[in-house]
Write a structure and sequence with these properties.
The chain has about 140 residues and is an alpha/beta fold. It has one domain: Acetylglutamate kinase-like (Carbamate kinase), CATH 3.40.1160.10. Strands 1-2-6-3 form a 4-stranded parallel beta sheet, with helices on both faces. Strands 4-5 form a two-stranded antiparallel ribbon. A hairpin with a 2-residue loop joins strand 4 and strand 5. It is globular and about 50 Å long.
């Protein structure tokens, strides 16, 4: 059976969390290159990558108090999700440029939470991607 590795790229590693929507492009590119080399050296490895939203999502989430579960203003969730997607696009593009078959998945689109706790999440898409040699890239 193949080894499964989950690698979490913290938002403060791939962005400058002090500056609004500021990616650390050289860091992202270096990580993509290293992951590509790792997968070439270990073709049997199953890799699941996740990343935070760093300076992309946190500024907007704070503005709308998303972390407090503000359910009266869905605009904040929409903006936070869009910001996270912008960073995800940069990470995805860097991985693809290095030959890593990264496929983006937004966990919040298939997860159910109650009182801040994860209750249910669709794992089938992640499992299928891993079975077919892709690298699921979760974010948020």
């Amino acid at each position: 059976m193949s080894e499964l590795v989950f690698l979490k790229l913290g938002g403060s590693i791939i962005t400058d969390k002090r500056r609004y929507e500021t990616p650390r492009s050289m860091v992202i590119a270096r990580i993509a290159k290293e992951l590509s080399a790792g997968l070439q050296a270990r073709p049997d490895l199953k890799l699941l990558v996740g990343h935070g939203s760093g300076s992309f999502g946190h500024f907007v989430a704070d503005k709308y108090h998303v972390h407090e579960g503000n359910l009266t203003d869905w605009h904040g969730y929409a903006e936070t999700g869009a910001a996270a997607q912008r960073l995800n696009r940069l990470v995805t593009d860097a991985l693809l440029a290095e030959g890593v078959p990264a496929v983006s998945l937004q966990p919040s689109a298939s997860a159910l939470c109650h009182n801040g706790e994860l209750v249910e999440m669709a794992l089938d898409p992640i499992v299928k991607l891993l079975q077919h040699g892709a690298v699921p890239l979760v974010y948020g």
